[in-house]
Amino acid sequence: MIPAVEFAAVSRHFGPIHAVDAVDLTIAEGSFFAMLGPSGSGKTTCLRLISGFEKPTHGAIRIFGQDVSNTPPNRRNVNTVFQDYALFPHMNVRDNVAYGLMVRGIPRTARYARAEELLALVKLDGFGDRKPAQLSGGQRQRVALARALVGEPRVLLLDEPLGALDLKLREAMQDELKTLQRRLGITFVFVTHDQSEALSMADTLAVFNQGRIAQIGTPAQIYDQPRTRFVADFVGSSNVLPPALTQSLGGPAQWSSLRPEALHLAPLAGAALTGTVTSLRYLGAGTRVQIATGGTEIGVLVPAGQPLPEPGSQTGLGFDTRALHIMEGA
Amino acid sequence: MTARPAILPERGIADRLSALFWRRPGLLLALLIAPPLIWLGVIYLGSLAALLVQSFYSIDEFSGLVVREFTLKTYAELLRPSNFDIILRTLMMSAAVTLAAAILAFPIAYFAARYARGRWKAVFYLGIMLPLWSSYLVKVYAWKLILAKEGIITWAADSLGLGFVLNAALALPGIGGNSLSTSFLGTWLVFLYVWLPYMILPMQAALERVPTAMLEASADLGASRGQTLRTVILPLALPGIIAGSIFTFSLTMGDYIIPQIIGTSANFIGMAVYQLQGTAGNLPLAAAFAVVPIVIMLAYLAIAKRMGAFDAL
Fold it and tell me: Are A207 and A234 in contact (CB under 8 A)?
C-alpha cells in the first residue's frame, strides 16, 4: 500500500537553525498519526512541510506516492485545522465551511447543502448564520474542523487543535475526533505537545526532539519501551534510572526506565531499594511519593486508600522486575 | 518580627490624586478628553454650524449684502449649469485620484505590511513620509516644471522615442491639453502624487492586521492567490482602504491650490469657495459650495457602511 505521507531525509533549515533535520517518516493511509514534542522540536514545521507552507531545504516529500516539491498548498488535497482556527471573521459560519468549495467554483446551493452536512457532522446544525466572533472556543474548533473536511481531503492536518480548550471540553473533543477519524477513514496527522493527548488518540506516534524523530511507534511501545532518556522523560512520568542504579537492581550498566505504578512501598528490611521520602503529591486516584535514593529521585504511585509515609522518613521500595525497561540510547 | 504595615503610608499629593482617580475612574477620563472635546465640539462643530447657517442665507443682488433670512435660493444656485459643472468636475477628479491612489498604493502597502522588516520598514516609512516634510507649494511648483512642455517628462518621452504616447494622451478629449501642466491629466497626476501617502499609510496598517494564518487557511482550502486577494485580503483590509480613500477624496475635493497652478483654469469647488468668499464676497454661495463635499463624504460613508466595508472592524 502506498503511504499517505512519506519524508525521505527531509530537512528544513532557517539560517543556522535546523528546525527539521534529516527526518525519515512514513504515515500509513487511514492512520491517526501524532507528532509529539516540546516547542521548537520541529513537529509543527513537519506539519507545515506537508501542507506546503514550508519548503524542504533538502530531501523529498511524497503524498500518496507523488513528489510535492513543486506543488503549492492550494493544489495539495491536504487540509489543515489551524492552531487558532484562522476562521474568516468577515464570513458567517456557513460561508467559512463552504469556502473550500466556493474557490473551486461549486454553485451556491450545492456548496451550502454540503456545508450544512458538515455542520451536522460536527453537531453545529443551525449555526450557519452566525459569525465566528459569536461562537465559543469549542464551537470555533468544530467550524474549523468542518471547513477543513468539506473538500474531502486525503490527509487532514491538525495543529494543536485542542490547545485552547479547557480540560473537560478537550477530553470530549479527543473522543469525538477519534470517532470522526474512524468514520471518515481519512488520514489524520496531529501535532501536540500534550503527551496524554497523543497517547490516547494516536495509532502511531512520533516523538520529536531538536528537529529529529527520537522514537516512532505505537503509544504502548513509546510508553513502555522508551528508546532514549528524552522519550522516557517527555512521555509520561517514568522514572529514568542511571546505569549504576540499573545495575544495582539487577540490570546491565545502562540507562533504564521504570514506571511509578510498577513500584510499591515496602518494609525497609529486605527491600531492593531504600531511600528518603522527599515529597508527596496528591493526584486523586493515588499519591505520587518522591523518594531520594542513589543520587536520584524516584516517583512511586501509591494507590488511594493505602498508607502514606511521612516526608523525611525512610522507606523501602519493591518493584516488578519485568517492568524495568533497559534503554538503548543514552 | 517587626510588624510590616498592611497599608502603605501616603506619599503626598500624587498618591492622593491617584487614590481619587481610583475611586472615580471617570474623572481621569473626563480630564483627559475635555480639552480635545472642547476644541472639536465648540470650535470645529461651532464653525461648521455657522457655515451651515450661512448657506441658508442669500445675497442681495443690488447691494451685495447678505440677507439674513432662511432661503433655499443659494442651494438652487448651485444647480445652475456653470456651478453644477464645478461640482461634477471636482467629484470626477476626486474619484479618479482616489481610484488611482488605491491601485498604486496597494502593492506598496502590501509589501510594507507583509515583507518589510527592520531596516526595510524604516526605509518604507521614510520614503512615504519624506515628501510630506517639504512644503506643499514647493512640490506643486516643482511639478509644474516637471510637467511643462519644456519639462523633463516631454524631454524624456522624446528621447526615448515615446513622444507619440504623450501626444496621444494629451490629445484625449476632455482631459488632454496643450501640455501636461495645462491639462486635467496633469492636475490628476499632481493630486495623485501629493495625496498618495495618505492612502498608503492606513492601507498598510489595515493589511498588517490581517493575520498570516488567514492567508494560509485560504491557500490551504484551495484558493489561488487572486482568490485569496479578492475573498480574504481585500474584505479584511477594506476599512483601511476606505479610511485612505476618505483622505484622498476629501483632500482632493477641498484643495484650491493645485488646480490653480496646474491644469486648465477650470474651477474646482475649493477654488470656487476661495473666489466667492474673497473677491466676489458671496458668503452664502461659498458656504453652500463648502457644504457639498461634506454631504458627498457623508453619502460615501453611508454607502460604504451599507456595503459592509466596516464589518471587519
Answer: yes
Q: Is the pLDDT of residue B313 over 80?
A: no
Average of pLDDT values for A311-317? 89
Return the C-alpha cell found at B310.
466596516
Q: Is A158 within 8 Å of chain B by CB? A: no
Interface of A with B in 93-152 (CB under 8 A): 99-100, 102-104, 147-148, 151
CATH code of the region B73-135+189-306: 1.10.3720.10
Contact A103 B223 (CB under 8 A): yes
Helices (H), chain A: 43-51, 93-102, 108-121, 137-149, 167-184, 195-201, 219-224, 229-234, 243-248
Mean pLDDT calculated for residue range A156-171: 87
pLDDT surpassing 70 at residue B190 = yes
Q: Is B235 touching A (CB cutoff 8 A)?
A: yes
pLDDT tier at A325, thresholds 50, 70, 90: confident
Q: Which residues of B touch A103 (CB under 8 A)?
A: 218, 221-224, 227, 231
Distance CA B270, CA B286 (A): 9
Mutating which of A75, A95, A101, A103 best tests the B interface, going by the most B Cβ atoms within 10 A?
A103
Question: Which residues are A32's β-sheet partners?
Answer: A188
Residue among A313, A293, A294, A290 at smallest CA distance from A302: A290
Considering the segment(s) A241-326 as one domain, its CATH architecture is: Beta Barrel (2.40)
DSSP code per residue over B1-65: -----SSPPP-SHHHHHHHHHHH-HHHHHHHHHHHHHHIIIIIIHHHHHHHHHHHTSEE-TTT--
The pLDDT value recorded for residue A135 is 93
- Distance from the A80 Cα atom to the nearest Cα atom in chain B, whole angstroms: 7
Task: Measure the CA angle with vertex A74, ends A73 and A79; round to 5°.
Answer: 75
B-interface mutation test, from A99, A106, A155, most B Cβ less than 10 A away: A99
Question: CATH 2.40.50.140 in chain A, residues?
Answer: 241-326
Q: Are A300 and A264 in contact (CB under 8 A)?
A: yes
- Domain ranges within chain B, ordered by starting residue: 73-135+189-306
Cα of B156 to nearest chain A Cα, Å: 43
Q: CATH 3.40.50.300 occupies which residues in chain A? A: 5-232
Contact present, A252 and A241 (Cβ < 8 Å): no
Q: Tell me the three cell numbers of residue A132.
A: 465566528
Neighbours of B136 (CB within 10 A): 13
Q: Tens digits of per-residue pLDDT, A207-254?
A: 999 999 999 999 999 988 888 888 988 887 788 888 888 888 878 888
- Going by C-beta distance under 8 Å and a sequence separation of 6 or more, which residues neighbour residue B104? B192, B196, B199
Instruction: Give the pLDDT of residue B60.
Output: 81
Residue for cell digits 503610608? B9
Name the residue in chain A with its Cα closest to that of B235: A90
CB A210 within 8 A of CB A230: no
| CA A316 distance to own-chain centroid | 36
The three-class DSSP label of residue A188 is: strand
The two counts, helices (H) then strands (E), for chain B are: 16, 2
Q: What is the pLDDT of residues B16-68, one digit of tens each?
A: 999 999 999 899 999 999 988 888 888 888 888 988 898 898 888 777 788 88
A5-232 CATH fold = Rossmann fold (3.40.50)
d(CA A75, CA B209): 27
Contact between A74 and B220 using a beta-carbon 8 Å cutoff: yes
A226 touches chain B (CB under 8 A): no
